[in-house]
Amino acid sequence: MALIVAIPYFYVGYWAFIIRRSLAVPIYRQQALGIGSVTIFFFVLLPAFQYFSSNFVRSLLIAPFFVATLYWVDASILAARRSDPLLRDTVHWSRIRFVFWAMILAGFILMVLSYIGLSTSNFIVSLVSDFLIFFYIVGPFLLGAAILPIVSRRSGDASLRRHLTWFGVFALLLLLSFLRFLVPGHTQFFLTWSGILAFAVALYPLYRSVKSLVPLNRLKLD
């Protein structure tokens, strides 16, 4: 089942790399490369999660995906700032970005330590650890869903604005997919099928994000 969901992501990634080859503007090529990388991670990780049952192995497999997603969100926000006529630093991202990088790194380290048997009885330390691990998992998508739509409206580049808006929608859908684990009284059936539905629905805004890098409407008018 995971492979069936992963194959369309490979298709979107394939077109992202094809579109990248046809683009001349460096910033567009970088954005297309980022989308292609995210989709390839999906294509590899979804079947791998079904094959490996160890949570420790899964955390090691998924770490590059979360790091790559945060890097992509970070690069996209900085790119949008460069295309802003006023060069506005939305939410002071140029400074606080280092805090988020430190948080996702700390969350990954704590998750690995928890899997190898490290435990603590201190309530505050445990609460902070749980928060950092939670941010490590949902942080990149939370930032993408919350900040990218804001910075996209400030960009003076129409194609980049549409691209970032659609990627923000994609991040929001993936964020909701992770938050489904917080639903009380959930069953394995609910987790499985809600996850499949979320990944399938998120495919469309990701495809539109790639497609928006090519100004098809302006080409038709010409």
Mind explaining what this structure looks like?
It contains 8 helices and no strands. The protein is globular. It has 222 residues and is mostly helical. The model is unreliable at 218-222 (pLDDT under 50). The chain has one domain (54-221).
Offer a concise description of the structure:
It contains eight helices and no strands.
Supply the key terms.
single chain; 222 residues; mainly alpha; disordered C terminus
Structural class: mainly alpha
Spatial gap, N to C terminus: 44 Å
- Number of helices, counting only DSSP H or I runs of 4 residues or more: 8
Q: H/E element string?
A: HHHHHHHH
The overall average pLDDT, rounded, is: 80
Total separate domains = 1
Helix content: over 70%
Poorly predicted runs: 218-222
Rg calculated over all Cα atoms: 18 Å
Q: What's the quaternary structure here?
A: single chain
How much of the sequence lies in strands comes to: under 5%
Shape: globular
The number of E-state strands comes to: 0
* Biggest β-sheet strands, sense, barrel: none
